[in-house]
């Protein structure tokens, strides 16, 4: 329903807003509203994205490290809250479309280490992925009942996304 509402109110020229983009847009607006920031202040939504499949040429199979970047979408608080969900989701969607393999490879040349303390207090940071199979892992004790993300990297505005337990594409946010 959130995805349908976002697509209905957006003004996209190409493609469709994805469920994750709609949900993150909703959370970005909600967290920003709760913070009671000034209308002229800039807020950012930083969406972690894996680059393995986006790079051309792709990374060799032997590459063992993480390969990701944060896709940055910025807006004035007044614009974000003055528009509807479709506007926020469309802004996130357009950021994803803009991040091409060439941009990703250029940004990878500047290695950065991310620290939860390095984000602005007006930011929302989204990590993990609803596409990582979490509940299907069985280590001899049976199928998982819940996904817990531990105590690391917990900060105001940090969101971890996991696939939901409910079949059909649900997502859990922590």
UniProtKB/TrEMBL annotation:
Molecular function (GO) terms listed?
transferase activity
Q: Keyword annotations for this protein?
A: Transferase
Q: What is this protein called?
A: Acetyltransferase
């Amino acid at each position: 329903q959130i995805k349908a509402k976002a697509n209905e109110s957006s003004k996209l020229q190409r493609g469709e807003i994805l469920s994750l983009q709609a949900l993150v847009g909703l959370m970005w607006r909600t967290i920003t509203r709760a913070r009671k920031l000034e209308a002229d202040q800039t807020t950012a939504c930083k969406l972690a994205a894996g680059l393995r499949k986006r790079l051309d040429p792709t990374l060799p199979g032997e590459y063992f490290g993480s390969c990701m970047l944060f896709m940055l979408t910025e807006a004035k608080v007044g614009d974000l809250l003055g528009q509807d969900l479709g506007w926020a989701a469309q802004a996130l969607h357009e950021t994803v479309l803009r991040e091409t393999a060439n941009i990703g490879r250029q940004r990878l040349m500047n290695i950065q280490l991310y620290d939860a303390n390095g984000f602005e207090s007006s930011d929302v940071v989204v990590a993990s992925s609803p596409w990582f199979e979490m509940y299907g892992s069985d280590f001899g004790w049976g199928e998982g009942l819940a996904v817990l993300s531990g105590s690391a990297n917990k900060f105001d505005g940090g969101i971890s996304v996991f696939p939901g337990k409910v079949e059909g594409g649900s997502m859990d946010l922590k």
